[in-house]
Amino acid sequence: MDKEISQLEERAARLLNEYQSLRDENRGLHTRLDALEADNTRLRDKLAQCIARVEALIARLPEREDA
Fold first, then answer.
1. How remote is the C-alpha of 1 from its chain's centroid?
2. Above 80 in pLDDT, residue 5?
3. Each residue's pLDDT tens digit, 17-58
4. Residue 18 falls within a domain, yes or no?
5. How many domains are contained in the chain?
6. Beta strands in 1-67 (DSSP E)
7. How far apart are CA 67 and CA 59, in angstroms?
8. How far apart are CA 39 and CA 51, in angstroms?
9. Is residue 63 in some structural domain?
10. Residue 25 and residue 32: Cα distance in Å, rounded?
11. pTM
12. Residue 64 lies in a domain
């Protein structure tokens, strides 16, 4: 009986350690995800600005006369 209890205690300790490890990893992944989403938003905004600038430059180009 003592052996079974000891085995259960060891298993519970391993499960608790694994749970804490996974929880820490999950927290880190959420932090990384937040940073990547912020970076993605920043890059999307920068791309939209670039597109607007290119469109403005294209609008200023003279019409082709050889058509």
1. 49
2. yes
3. 999 999 999 999 999 999 999 999 999 999 999 999 999 999
4. yes
5. 1
6. none
7. 18
8. 18
9. no
10. 10
11. 0.68
12. no
Torsion of CA 13, 5, 8, 23, to 10 degrees: -30
User: Would you say residue 52 lies in a domain?
Assistant: yes
What's the maximum distance between 2 C-alpha atoms anywhere in the chain? 97
How many angstroms separate the Cα of 3 from the Cα of each of 13, 37, 48, 55? 15, 50, 66, 76
Residue type (1 letter), 62: P
Q: Which amino acid is at 33?
A: L
Closest CA to 32 of 24, 20, 48: 24
**Residues composing the chain:** 67
Query: What is the residue range of 11's domain?
Result: 1-58
Q: Count other Cβ atoms within 10 Å, centred on residue 9.
A: 10
Q: DSSP secondary-structure letter at 63?
A: P
